[in-house]
């Protein structure tokens, strides 16, 4: 700014002193020293008051606004501070509006940076997850092409292993599509009354062999004959329970117990899946619902799975206006829970 408060105060105080001296000239018999005294008093007082008023009300605020524009021009929005001074109301309002605009832009920039980070991480995870089954199946097929196809003893073994890896690849792609559609809002929940007790027992029947193989017992707090109806998308809630119970079996120790409970909380039914397995360290609890996030990567890949199960669970539960919760203690087990709306016949 070419003109500051001091320069303007000098000009205005000089004008005031000149007007006062001009008024004294009209008075008769005024001594010369009075002219000097009046000049210095009027000029000094005027300069001090005008400088303070202009600096406090206008120029300080204008400099602050100018500095904000400089920071915005330089894309340095992180150091912007909200106005806490008492300037002129119009300038103060302009300052606040500029700060609100810049703060909003800073939030957008941070969000875009975070999204870019997530995108890079997601691409890296997808590439890694796809690479494993593709390379494995490719290796078995090329081995067969290189002559192993004539070996009757190993031919079927290689074909089965290649098929297993391709099945895993297909499962991964299907889970990716499911997560993608859910995040885009392309999947609508088809709500219908479902007997949650019957659903749990059907899943138990489906997983009986898997549980027996891991020497894990499946339990529930209700009899099969009991009827507890909830308003849900049957296929999606089935997927949620299958994922949670499968994980509970996978990460349980031999001789462990996986218990699925349904607790009435009033307007809703609380579904709880509890195991007594290895548990999840506290530092991982906030991230286990992220795509491809694995607490123990070596054990997770040895056990199997796409790394998308809990992410799908989270999206389905949230689509039912609920929230998936987890409590876990390493060495003691984990408890996952979510609430579902009761079915009320019309």
TrEMBL record:
Residues 125-344 form the Histidine kinase domain. Keywords: ATP-binding, Kinase, Membrane, Nucleotide-binding, Phosphoprotein, Transferase, Transmembrane, Transmembrane helix, Two-component regulatory system. GO terms for molecular function: ATP binding. Pfam families: HATPase_c, HisKA. InterPro entries: BphY/WalK/GraS-like, HATPase_C_sf, HATPase_dom, His_kinase_dom, HisK_dim/P_dom, HisK_dim/P_sf, Sig_transdc_His_kin-like_C. The keyword Mitochondrion does not apply. The chain crosses the membrane at residues 7-27, 33-59. It catalyses: ATP + protein L-histidine = ADP + protein N-phospho-L-histidine. PROSITE patterns: HIS_KIN. Its EC number is 2.7.13.3. It comes from the Bacteria. The keyword Glycoprotein does not apply. This is histidine kinase.
């Amino acid at each position: 700014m070419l003109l500051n408060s001091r320069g303007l105060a000098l000009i205005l105080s000089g004008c005031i002193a000149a007007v006062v001296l001009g008024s004294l000239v009209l008075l008769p018999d005024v001594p010369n020293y009075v002219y000097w005294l009046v000049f210095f008093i009027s000029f000094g007082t005027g300069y001090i008051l005008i400088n303070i008023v202009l600096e406090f009300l206008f120029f300080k605020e204008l400099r602050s606004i100018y500095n904000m524009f400089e920071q915005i021009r330089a894309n340095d929005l992180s150091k912007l501070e909200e106005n806490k001074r008492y300037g002129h109301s119009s300038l103060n309002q302009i300052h606040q509006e500029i700060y609100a605009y810049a703060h909003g832009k800073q939030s957008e920039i941070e969000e875009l940076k975070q999204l870019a980070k997530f995108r890079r991480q997601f691409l890296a995870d997808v590439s890694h997850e796809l690479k494993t089954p593709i390379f494995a199946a490719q290796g078995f097929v090329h081995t067969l092409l290189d002559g192993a196809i004539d070996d009757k003893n190993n031919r079927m073994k290689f074909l089965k292993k290649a098929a297993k890896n391709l099945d895993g690849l297909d499962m991964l792609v299907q889970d990716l599509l499911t997560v993608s559609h859910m995040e885009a809002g392309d999947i609508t929940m088809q709500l219908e009354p479902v007997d949650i007790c019957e659903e749990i027992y059907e899943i138990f029947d489906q997983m009986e062999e898997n549980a027996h193989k891991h020497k894990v017992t499946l339990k529930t707090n209700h009899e099969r004959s009991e009827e507890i109806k909830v308003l849900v998308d049957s296929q999606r809630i089935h997927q949620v329970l299958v994922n949670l119970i499968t994980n509970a079996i996978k990460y349980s120790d031999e001789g462990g117990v996986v218990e699925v409970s349904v607790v009435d909380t009033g307007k809703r039914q609380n579904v709880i899946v509890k195991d007594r397995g290895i548990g999840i360290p506290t530092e991982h609890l906030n991230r286990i619902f992220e795509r491809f996030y694995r607490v123990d990567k070596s054990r997770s890949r040895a056990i199997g799975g796409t790394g998308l199960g809990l992410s799908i669970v989270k999206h389905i539960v949230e689509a039912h206006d609920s929230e998936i919760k987890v409590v876990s203690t390493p060495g003691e087990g984990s408890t996952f829970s979510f609430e579902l709306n009761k079915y009320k016949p019309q």
